């Protein structure tokens, strides 16, 4: 008999948790094993029930959902986190990724079918982003290159200049091209040139790949 995917729901609104629980109960391969209204309680339940997938909002009383994601990722790497939030801006998305989230869905337009697909995907350790989230990311980071990432390209970390490292760090913090230009007092074209140089050195397929890899491997650190 196939083991069910055990899910923990974290949201400060009871009606949201109840609605999600009722929805997920209809899936034969998913089991809701608990719910929590804040990060502190969620961390207690994580230790107690050890779910496969944790679905969390980002805005909650006390410590934020970002802190919850970070703690779970560090202490319980086998638990995969799926964000379900009304916040769909670049900073929230990349901060969640940086903290260790495997997926991200907007509350506004996520369907039952998409939620179920996301849960099953992240439960396998894979990433899942809705079309809405992908569009937000693509709007900010639209440039792509044809070459695929290779071990040889990844080994070129030492070839980044100090300015490229600085710009890459700002991208991982969720800043846009305009914001980076303002922060460093340089032109947007200069920012884009540095970004393209970084991508070419690593042969990243897209800027999204660049940021995700940089977050995981601390490439933006001086």
Sequence-ordered SSE layout with sheet pairings:
Layout: E1 5-10, H1 14-24, E2 30-36, H2 39-49, E3 53-56, H3 65-75, E4 80-85, H4 90-99, E5 103-106, H5 112-123, E6 128-129, H6 131-140, H7 151-154, H8 162-172, H9 177-184, H10 188-202, H11 207-217
Parallel strand pairs: 1-2, 1-3, 3-4, 4-5, 5-6
Helix pairs in contact: 2-3, 3-4, 8-10, 8-11, 9-10
Describe the structure.
With 222 residues, the protein is an alpha/beta fold. The chain has two domains: 5-138, Response regulator (Rossmann fold, 3-Layer(aba) Sandwich), CATH 3.40.50.2300; 141-217, Winged helix-like DNA-binding domain superfamily/Winged helix DNA-binding domain (Arc Repressor Mutant, subunit A, Orthogonal Bundle). It is 51% helix and 13% strand. The protein has eleven helices and six strands. The protein has helices spanning 14-24, 39-49, 65-75, 90-99, 112-123, 131-140, 151-154, 162-172, 177-184, 188-202, 207-217; strands at residues 5-10, 30-36, 53-56, 80-85, 103-106, 128-129. A six-stranded parallel sheet has the order 2-1-3-4-5-6, with helices on both faces. Helix 5 links the parallel strand 5 and strand 6. Helix 2 runs parallel beside helix 3 (65-75), helix 8 (162-172) packs across helix 10 and helix 9 (177-184) packs across helix 10 (188-202). The longest helix has 15 residues, at 188-202. It is elongated, with a radius of gyration of 19 Å. The N and C termini lie far apart (50 Å). The relative contact order is 0.11. Residues 141-155 have low confidence and may be disordered.
